[in-house]
Amino acid sequence: MKIVTLFFPKASIGTYLVAMAVAIALPIFAFVALLLLQLEDNQRSTLKRETAQDALALSRIIDRQLQDMATTLRLLSSSPELENGNLASFHERTETALRDNTLFVIAVDRTGQQLLNTRRAFGTPLGKTANMTAFEAVMASGRIEASDVFRGRTSGEWVYNVTLPRKNDPVAALIITQDAKDLGKLVTTEGLAPGWSAAIIDESGHVVAATGPANLEPGTPFDPRILPALTVSRGVFQDETILPHMLLGYAQIPGWSWKTVIWGPIAQASILSTWRFLIIGGVALVLVAVLGAYAVARQVRTTIRDIAEMANRMGEGHIVSPVETSVIEANQVAIALSNASFDRSQTEDRLRFVMHELVHRTKNLLTLAQAMMRQLAKQSDSVESFRAAVADRLEGLVRSIELLTSEQWGGVSLRRVVDIHLQAFPQSREQIDISGEDFVLKPDAVQNLGLALHELATNSVKYGALSVPQGRVRFEWRDVSEEDKPDALLRFTWEERGGPPVTEPSRSGFGTTVIKAHAASAFRGTVEIDFRPEGLLWVLTAQRATLVRD
Fold this sequence. Notes:
Layout (H helix, E strand, L loop, with lengths): L1 H6 L5 H65 L2 H4 L3 H11 L5 E6 L5 E4 L14 H10 L3 E2 L3 E2 L6 E8 L7 E7 H4 L13 E5 L5 E5 L22 E4 L8 E7 L6 E7 L3 H47 L12 H52 L3 H24 L5 E2 H9 L9 E4 L4 E2 L1 H20 L9 E8 L9 E9 L12 H13 L3 E7 L2 E9 L7
Parallel strand pairs: 13-15
Antiparallel strand pairs: 1-2, 1-6, 3-5, 4-5, 5-6, 7-8, 7-11, 9-10, 10-11, 12-14, 15-16, 16-18, 17-18
Helix pairs in contact: 2-7, 7-8, 8-9, 9-11, 10-11, 11-12
GO molecular function, one term: ATP binding
InterPro entries: HATPase_C_sf, Sig_transdc_His_kinase_HWE
Pfam families: HWE_HK (PF07536)
């Protein structure tokens, strides 16, 4: 209680409404801030993913170019001119085929001496290939490789080679060379955000080709602080010290020693603008919420006082008229209080009636239970048999009372009464055939007919048709009224077949009294019982008025 008082001290409704407004506004403000943080994190994650994908897309473009060059080398390597050693024809044919491209072919022997170069006329004196390191690495590995970028002796430009080793002589290797600036035409920043750059990095960490604001020239060493971190096949690199407010994505060109990289600034302006808007808007929201809560509090306080005055007058026993306020719900409360003041006297009368009815029904039930126990006491030969008989009959009576209570003593359908009492014998339920048009029984009829049904079923399970699997019971009811008789009659039939042979008992017990005398008396009718050898036949002819609820 002290903790509740600590958090909720006595205060006016205005104070609580203002506190509620603040309590609502602040979590909303905090939640929006959390969403912005999440949004910023998602934007960064999306940017990283897209950056890595853009680097991969660029690597695929360069890989396609290198693969095309490798394919060209393989085709040229198997040309007849080269196989026959006719280098002049090979030079002429190759130079003609590649005239429209920016590619040039070089043939070298095992020492690296150029035998022909399509950049020069055939027969022009040539020296060794300029990049002997790359040539020797290819000859050692025996596979096609792309060299690092280097300054070509013949062209004087930054170039790169793709070399195919051969086992034939005199041509030990074929080389396709291309100027780095021509490869740079494939490197584009189209589709990237403003301020982003892209580049191809060779195995030694030099720029092969680049584009974008970074303006890196071929042969320029790429930042050595970054290269050691680019170890996996693709990914992103971010370091505020090396690349402040920037992001770099990279991808290894599959099958080659080169990498592609793209990098650029991370957009911050939109996020900062959103944060400023959030802070200003949040403060304004709290102020508006407080002012609105104060205005509402004044109106609600007046309304509550009017309703409290009505309640005080009603408590003094007056019939009150509803007050008119500006709050719809308060008006509904005022109308409800007014109606309650009118209904109070009627409720008191209803309570007196209910108490009288409860006393009446309780007396009837006690009288019935008392009579039942007297009868059973006369016929029982031991306390245990008396207890079992009483418990069994009370169980049937309780089922009827529970059923009536669930319907507020307003009557129950006949079919439901039958089902409820036969539920006590679930193992025999499928042996009973029930038929008849359903109707609603009066409360007294529910009890009396329930006692008779319970007694019939109990007797059948112990001694009759329901005591054996092949036994069958037919329970039906139908209207048997005659036109010349003013009272409508209903006939109930309980017929057993297929059970053990039946003999009439030597004396009448409590069960016989219930299904015969009590049933006939309760329904102002007649009961016929025939102990036929093939099974018991019980017929109740009763006045409809004693059974059917109006």
